[in-house]
Amino acid sequence: MCEYPKFSVLMSVYYKEQPEFLDQSLNSIIHQTLVPTEIVVIKDGKLTPELEGVITKYIETYPFIHCYGYEKNKGLGLALNYGVLKCDYDIIARMDSDDIAATDRFEKEMKTLIEHKFDMVGSNTEEFIDDISNVVSVRIMPETNEEIMEYSKKRNPFIHPSIMTYKSVLLDAGNYQDVYLCEDYDMWIRVLEKGYKVYNIQEFLVYMRVSKDFYKRRGGIKYCKGILSFKKTMYKKGYITYKQYFKTKYASLIVSLMPVFLREFIYKKILRKKNRTYEKK
After folding, report:
1. In degrees to the nearest 10, what's the CA dihedral of 268, 269, 270, 272?
2. Which one is predicted more confidently, 29 or 274?
3. CB burial class (10 A; 0-12, 13-18, 19+) of residue 131?
4. Of 151, 175, 190, 273, which has fewest CB within 10 angstroms of its CB?
5. 182-193 pLDDT tens trace
6. Is residue 49 pLDDT above 70, yes or no?
7. Is-contact 92 6, C-beta < 8 A?
8. In angstroms, rounded to a whole number, what is the distance separating the alpha carbons of residues 132 and 207?
9. Strands 198-209 and 100-101: what pairing?
């Protein structure tokens, strides 16, 4: 195998996570064809004894797992901001505490990142319920730098737990910020504004867990306000035109406030279908 640079995997955990999901996620990181040099786990507030037990089990077995945290929950943006600073290596891969990485994810992302001299890479994902054998939908993301830039004016152009990038890139773009619901989207826009070279690998390298709660969490007044506030920020900073702001604003408003069963239908049959048939222009 080619000798690749050392790299960190960054994960945030908070008290509502399921211990068995965290266990499966960490297990998928450990059993990679390219094993990370370190795994940085950020405890975003006090965890349940069960979650603490999972983390302790892995730390005792794998000394390259480092855990940091604080007593009060601060939200994903600030947890990752803290976590980036705690990573010892310049290459950082993100991972969520309830998702599962394909066994060759890091090897393929590292190869693409290094050999093609990209500044950040992501991938497509398969969404599953209960077990990765039960894939219910897929997300196929825009591939090239130009396609990603165009797509970013409408929707989030990267799948957060599929990302591999450089610590120096994240810090140069201002690191993660406390942007409710859009911590990652906000980060990618700042990376794109800096002119960094990005790419989405057209393979399914992450399995993302979904459930009824997944669609429920993507609606309601609080969710709607968060999304609309971010869209307004995009317009005010000149990243999108008023026409683009108007279209995405009302699309987000409608989807956020509709009943859960309709939102689930939209995500599964329209949004995911649209991604699945994404065509290069």
Report:
1. 40
2. 29
3. exposed
4. 273
5. 999 999 999 999
6. yes
7. no
8. 7
9. antiparallel
* Residue whose pair of structure tokens reads 């601060």 in the numeric block: 74
Nearest Cα neighbor of 176 from 74, 69, 27, 251 is 74
Query: How far, in Å, CA of 108 to CA of 205, rounded?
Result: 9
pLDDT tens track for 87-126: 999 999 999 999 999 999 999 999 999 999 999 999 999 9
pLDDT: is 226 or 272 the higher one?
226
The encoded tokens of residue 134 equal: 């039960």
Nearest to 203 by CA among 277, 140, 127, 116: 140
- What digits encode the pLDDT tens for the residues 230-268? 999 999 999 999 999 988 887 777 777 677 666 666 666
Q: What is the DSSP letter of 6?
A: P
Task: Sort 227 into a burial class: Cβ within 10 Å, 0-12 / 13-18 / 19+.
Answer: buried
CA distance 49 to 165: 32
Three-state SS string across 16-66, please?
A: CCCHHHHHHHHHHHHCCCCCCCEEEEEEECCCCHHHHHHHHHHHHHCCCEE
On the 0-12 / 13-18 / 19+ scale of CB atoms within 10 A, 116 is exposed
Six token digits for residue 117 = 């001299």
Q: Is 68 helix (H, G, I), strand (E, B) or coil?
A: strand
Decide if 234 contacts 279 (C-beta within 8 A).
Answer: no
**What single-letter amino acid sits at 24?**
Q
pTM of the model: 0.90
Question: How confident is the prediction for the chain on average, in pLDDT?
Answer: 90
What phi and psi, each to the nearest 5 degrees, are found at residue 179?
A: -115, 105
The one-letter amino acid code at 49 reads: P
